[in-house]
């Protein structure tokens, strides 16, 4: 299952290793990736008018979390699909961070760790709902 257009994807992840791995999967699928090392950088991009087809964001990050990124996306880039990902935190109940992301309108969630194939499938599914640049 693939996507028929090259999407512009924002990857927001404070872990450099995870950000690199996610970026590689998305680029291998033929999409353009812009990376942000934290939510503050991502929000600045969105506030500045950058437009993305898909935003893949970690939920638990320093400076600005994924929920704040999702709120900024819904304000400045409402057409973007949002994929929230989180491994949770030791002091929070399992799934709490992703439940918060869902409450703030993430279109899909992935629990870390996930397989590359799970990420590919989630991205393909989300981008197939956008219809691509020719839609609308």
TrEMBL record:
Coiled coil: none annotated. This is Response regulator. Residues 8-127 form the Response regulatory domain. Keywords: Phosphoprotein. InterPro entries: Bact_response_regulator, CheY-like_superfamily, Sig_transdc_resp-reg_receiver. CDD domains: REC (cd00156). The lineage of its organism: Bacteria, Pseudomonadati, Pseudomonadota, Alphaproteobacteria, Rhodospirillales. It comes from the Bacteria. The keyword RNA-binding does not apply. The modification 4-aspartylphosphate is found at residue 58.
